[in-house]
Amino acid sequence: MRLASLFTLPFAVLLLSAAPAGENKEYCELPPWMTTSFKTMEGKETTLAKAFPGKAVVVVNTASRCGFTPQYADLEEVHREYGPKGVAVVAFPSNDYGNQEPGTNEEILEFCQENYGVTFPVMAKMHTRGEDISQLYKHLTGEDSIEPGEVQWNFEKFILAADGEMIARFRSRTSPASEEFREAVERAAATAEPPTSEGEEEAEAATGE
Questions:
Q1: Catalytic residues
Q2: Residues 101-121 pLDDT 10s
Q3: Does 26 reside within a domain?
Q4: CA distance 162 to 191
Q5: Would 179 be classed as within a structural domain?
């Protein structure tokens, strides 16, 4: 689809250019959720550390048919406000909660863009709980989490510092527009590397802006 290609192809280029040359000691010492592989919309393997080096990250499990789906708009505002400060918002669609994300990856991306103007990265659909839980979410919700325990519903949010430290975890009902959420994002942004002009250009290319 045209919208999908505008968004995902530049992001694939960013992934290739951003990945470290090797898994050095610093990379290997990151928390496991930073170095665990997952798939992009194009089916390419990457990790949070490789895709967003030096950035703080907001990880969200999303769905298109949920009562919390309008949070996409608030997340887009967070992306536009804090992206230039080194914060990456990343969506991981999941159909694990009430069958509220039944579409294909392409349909999910088109829905996000057309209905909420989403320009932040949306990854391939994955399992975020249950027997088939992805390794990423197994780590995010495991014993090393700031708040261990499985994701209960769509739009739970994990805020990670640039070094991978988990700063906060918010359940679905906490809006990305809320004061407590924004305060946590501010703390995360303070850990990010100052964006360079080259990095800003890459970020714009990755989001199709």
A1: 66
A2: 999 999 999 999 999 999 999
A3: no
A4: 6
A5: yes
Distance in angstroms (rounded) separating the CA atoms of residues 183 and 116: 23
Q: Is 153 a member of any domain?
A: yes
Neighbour tally for 186: CB within 10 Å: 14
User: For residue 187, is it within any domain?
Assistant: yes
Distance, in Å, from the CA atom of 202 to the CA atom of 27, rounded to the nearest integer, reads: 22
Structural domain for 182, as ranges: 2-18+31-207
Q: Please provide the distance, in angstroms rounded to a whole number, between the alpha carbons at the two ends of the chain.
A: 17
**CB-CB contact of 111 with 1 (8 Å):** no
**CATH number of the domain encompassing residue 153:** 3.40.30.10
Q: What does pTM read for this prediction?
A: 0.82
Residue pair 71/206 in contact (Cβ under 8 Å)? The answer is no
DSSP-assigned letter for residue 130: S
Number of domains in the chain: 1
DSSP designation for 119: -
